[in-house]
Description:
Layout: E1 4-9, H1 14-26, E2 31-34, E3 39-42, H2 48-57, E4 61-64
Antiparallel strand pairs: 1-3, 1-4, 2-3
Amino acid sequence: MAKKTYHIKGMDCNACAQMIELDFEDAGISASCDYAKEELTIKDDVPHEKVKKLLEDQGYTIEKHG
């Protein structure tokens, strides 16, 4: 299982990061979000397009960077 990290734009506060984590959890995806680093780390093997859609549906933009 490879871990993937994404750079997220559009978070306003730590509550945004917590909401992102909860939305991914609701989708059955193990993830952690760091507001200060503007990063989302996915611990499951999830297609990039699915991650992108979940975030864009919440109003965020992403770049995969690891």
